[in-house]
Design a protein that fits this description.
Helix content: 40-55%
Order of helices and strands: EHHEHHEHEHHHEHHHHHHE
Number of domains: 1
CATH architecture: 3-Layer(aba) Sandwich
CATH topology: Rossmann fold
Radius of gyration: 20 Å
Strand order of the largest sheet: 2-3-1-4-5-6
Largest sheet: 6 strands, parallel
CATH class: Alpha Beta
Distance between the termini: 30 Å
Structural class: alpha/beta
Shape: globular
Strand content: 5-15%
Length: 292
């Protein structure tokens, strides 16, 4: 069985991706692709992973898990799961003054549980200049210093985490994208996570776009697509980009940074560093990077 698991990062999509994929659940099920409700598996997988960490799992753990998640596991070719906090809840992202210190233990346990399955991992990265403040706000920690556990935001390198994931589960496929690009690649992400052909018709391809573009902009956008059907994904992305430039909801795009000691210079430096880091990830072997 293929196990497709969207494992992060925190504060990247607020479950919007799996919700869009689930809009196609009935059609996908006809192809042996199951997208169960998140309530069926998140707590169950978390508790199972915790019970396996550092030990040898019970031989029946996989089947017991699948029986609880899927109605007909023997008729499932691909199981699609998502938990952007799988590697660690917001409070614990920087424990040990490192990024996702618990990644090794969690991924090794996951690999042990699904030892004979094909594991496809999906991971979105985000500019630390917005990721750190968003995660800090979600954590509810009293102070920013306590939240970071002594880690300097300038030391955040997603490429280092990606390399760790590759070394922990070298036989798994790993697909990565930049959260900032998601409005342009949303439909591709839905298809890719689902495991269907790139030309398969889907529902929900503009879900994210509609949340960050004005109602007038979306009406004009859909009207334009009907009268000027794009001839390729690249052309469609150029059209999306043009409409976002004109009709994006500024409050959804620009987020206030609630860290008093941060200034524009630091934000610019973090952003420049992040862009270099993205280039590093794109050049890494055995990593699929989805870009516009």
């Amino acid at each position: 069985m293929q196990i497709a698991f969207h494992i992060g990062a925190n504060c990247t999509d607020d479950d919007q991706l799996i919700k869009s994929v689930r809009k196609n659940a009935s059609a996908l099920e006809l192809e042996g692709i199951h997208v169960p409700p998140i309530g069926r598996y998140r707590r169950l997988i978390r508790e199972t992973v915790q019970s396996v960490e550092g030990s040898t799992p019970n031989p029946n753990v996989r089947q017991t898990l699948l029986d609880a998640i899927i109605d007909n596991p023997h008729h499932t070719d691909r199981l699609v799961l998502s938990n952007s906090a799988f590697l660690g809840v917001a409070n614990r992202i920087f424990e040990g003054a490192s990024l996702y210190q618990m990644a090794e233990a969690k991924l090794l346990a996951l690999r042990q549980i699904f030892a004979d399955d094909e594991l496809d991992l999906y991971f979105a990265v985000r500019n630390p200049a917005s990721f750190v403040p968003a995660a800090y706000m979600e954590s509810k920690k009293a102070t920013f210093g306590a939240y970071m556990h002594g880690m300097d935001p300038m030391d955040i390198r997603w490429s280092v985490l990606v390399a760790r994931i590759r070394s922990i589960v070298p036989d798994a496929t790993l697909t990565v994208w930049a959260n900032e690009d998601t409005p342009l690649i949303w439909a591709e992400l839905i298809r890719d996570l689902s495991g269907v052909d790139p030309l398969t018709r889907i529902t929900g391809g503009f879900d994210l776009l509609s949340s960050i573009m004005s109602k007038t902009g979306m009406q004009r956008f859909t009207s334009y697509l009907k009268s000027h059907p794009p001839q390729s994904e690249a052309q469609k992305r150029r059209i999306i980009s043009a409409f976002l430039d004109k009709f994006a909801i500024e409050d959804e795009i620009d987020q206030e940074i609630p860290i008093p000691e941060w200034n524009d210079a630091l934000v610019d430096e973090l952003t420049d560093q992040y862009e270099d880091d993205l280039l590093t990830i794109q050049q890494m072997p055995n990593v699929r990077f989805i870009a516009p």
